[in-house]
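Lab notebook, bench 4. The sequencing result for the construct came back, and we need a structural model before the next group meeting so we can plan mutations. Quick request posted to the team channel:

Model the 3D structure of this chain.
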Amino acid sequence: MNDAAAFLVEHGGAVLFVAVFAEQIGLPVPAIPVLLAAGARAGAGKMSLATAIVLSLVACFAGDLIWYELGRRRGRHALNLLCRISLEPDSCVRRTENFFERHGLRSLILAKFVPGLSTITPALAGLFGVSGRQFLLYNGLGALVWSVAFIAPGYLFSNQLESMAEQAAR
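Done. Here's the predicted structure in token form:
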């Protein structure tokens, strides 16, 4: 077993939490491969499926709550900070506001699957005065759907993913 695989086996839960949290706060860390790997570990009996889902949910909530509160307390300053690091800073705020206005609270679910919007949408919810209760409900549903959408395939295809990992390690 190579060093990376050994590290994941030993610290899989922490790696999952950190990767999801980092992606949710806007760092360029790809969480999807880690979610797939967590699902594969659960499928192989090396991690509880429920643990993988809960860790992903908690990491999503932690990152999203930071941006929600910043949007609620700092308003446009939080959005400008997020959009400053965007590939298209000039149109970032306008496009995301249009997306949120068009889809309403459903945008908290849909945005999880759109890179960039996933980070900005919680701040918009805070800026637009979405209640904490509504935010927790819709964001929680989005986090659950997103987490399961990537953990489940890893779980279902754990044997195939393990074979691929073994071949890649050779």
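The chain has a mean pLDDT of 88.
Will bring this to the meeting.
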